[in-house]
Design a protein that fits this description.
By secondary structure, this protein is an alpha/beta fold. It has a 5-stranded parallel beta sheet, sandwiched between helices. It has 5 helices and 5 strands, in the order E-H-E-H-E-H-E-H-E-H. The protein has one domain: Response regulator (Rossmann fold, 3-Layer(aba) Sandwich), CATH 3.40.50.2300. Helix 2 runs parallel beside helix 3.
Length: about 130
């Protein structure tokens, strides 16, 4: 098990138009020692990515202006961030939503509301390579 000090360098971005989801993720991740970068939508996230260089991105699907599918697709087209893991967040747990997420390049799918355990398990799974570097 990693200790909080081992996670300090890792930044996790959470993109969600719900302040409740952003705040919950920030609390859970902060308690585990991760730095959290919050974004309200895809445009906000894309503007912050270069400054913060996140190791993992959680991306809500249903957002105004630029939805999660569009945001993930743009991240995959980015030279700098194309290999950054993206986990889609959604309250919908349908096969179509999961398939569409995979089509735009997401690595995984986490259903909301998520638990602290499921969030941190996903973070550990997709940041293991970043920690071992």
């Amino acid at each position: 098990m990693t200790t909080p000090t081992e996670n300090v360098a890792l930044k996790i971005m959470v993109i969600d138009d719900s302040s409740t989801i952003r705040r919950s993720a920030e609390i859970f991740l902060g308690q585990a020692g991760y730095q959290t970068v919050l974004a309200e939508d895809g445009f906000d996230a894309l503007a912050k990515m270069n400054d913060h260089n996140p190791a993992l991105i959680f991306c809500d699907i249903l957002m105004p202006r630029l939805d999660g599918y569009q945001t993930c697709s743009l991240i995959r087209k980015s030279v700098r961030f194309h290999s950054t893991p993206v986990v889609m967040l959604s309250s919908k747990d349908g096969l179509f939503d999961r398939a569409r997420g995979a089509m735009v390049g997401s690595n995984a799918y986490l259903t909301k509301p998520f638990t602290k355990d499921s969030l941190l398990r996903t973070v550990r799974e997709y940041t293991a390579a970043a920690v071992s570097r």
